Amino acid sequence: MAFRAVPVTTLDTNRTFCEDTLTLARSAFEVEDFACAIALAESAEASQLAVDQIACRQAAAVLLTEGHWAMGQFVPTFVCAMRAAALSEQTGQFDAQVRVLGLGAMAACSAGLPDEGLPLALQATQCARDRDLFKPLALGLMTLANVHANLGDFDEAERLHMQALSRARESGEDELLVRSFSLALLSGILCLEEAPVESFGEVTSARVMRLLTLAYQARRYLGETQLPSMHRSTLHLNIGHVLMLGGKYDEAGILFRQATALVPDQGASQLRWSIEHSVCELERRCGRLERAWLLLQTLLERMPKHESLFTHEHILRTALPLARALNFDEEAARFAEQLQTITKEQERLRFLSRVELRHAKQQTIGALAR
């Protein structure tokens, strides 16, 4: 399905044009033609400069936020989220306001700037609380917890995730509960991966024990739900990852095999690659080094097309200790050099993103004030 954005100057800039263009943009989004969806949404937004057309501008800004997020464009996501949130508040679209603020906060975290995302996450949670929005508050708490985890405040992240999980259970919505479990486990994974390497496999700390308890709860829940296979596979992967980091290697292997069996045949290459990476890491931790090395070669050959620096860094953090354990000195030196290069590039990009983000924030705030 192909779409083309028509220049605004050739069409009437009225409400009908905006609504029709947004319909096309949503259709493009549904078939994952995100670049086209963004172009169409920009045309729709640009056509509605008058105050009385604010509803169309709000819808366009929300779609732009979602489109940039889907494209992995974190600074534009953040900036569009600020605009969409302000317009959503003016039009009384408070569910949308909470959602876009959450996307903006997550975009800041993905850009390595969780401190910039914290105000948005706090605003999203407060908005949902003030208006007694049940599901948006659960989502807002998940986002706020994730931001705190990215800031390294794992105690606060855990407390907020438990609040979100309680609300998700109360809602009775499987999709919301899966999301809550998944994000809570991901925060826990982030916490354990920040721990010293020599502590991996120990289950004596209270935090690890609580996280393992949560993983087992999520595992029991999976046996009771009939969600689409993609969601089930992702949750299996996250549970398995926690069990692996907690030293439960046999159980982790079972979860990874179940996750693999649930991966859809089409459109899930990134998920499949992530599972295979986890299996490779499990083999390394279990001491099956030759097997892990063979899996690593396959993973490096099949690196996702547009892999992020984070993805590349993640696989190198498996490759480097593996090469060292096998006494592959040449490969280890190469991996260490690549990891150092990526770390420096991440620092450079974080600095540029912060400058760009703060400049764009000032422009956005100024534009909204006019």
Notable traits:
mainly alpha; 370 residues; single chain
Commentary on this structure:
This protein has 370 residues and is an all-alpha fold. It is 78% helix and 0% strand. Helix 6 packs antiparallel against helix 7 (134-150), helix 7 packs parallel to helix 9 and helix 15 (309-325) runs antiparallel to helix 16. It is globular.
Q: Which value, in Å, is the CA radius of gyration?
A: 22 Å
Strand portion, in percent? under 5%
Mean pLDDT: 86
Pick out the low-confidence regions.
196-204
Compressed to H and E, one letter per element, the order equals: HHHHHHHHHHHHHHHH
What are the SSEs and their pairings?
Layout: H1 15-30, H2 34-46, H3 54-70, H4 74-90, H5 94-110, H6 114-130, H7 134-150, H8 154-171, H9 174-194, H10 206-222, H11 229-245, H12 249-262, H13 269-285, H14 289-301, H15 309-325, H16 329-369
Helix pairs in contact: 1-2, 1-3, 2-3, 3-4, 3-5, 4-5, 4-16, 5-6, 5-7, 6-7, 7-8, 7-9, 8-9, 9-10, 9-11, 10-11, 11-12, 11-13, 12-13, 13-14, 14-15, 15-16
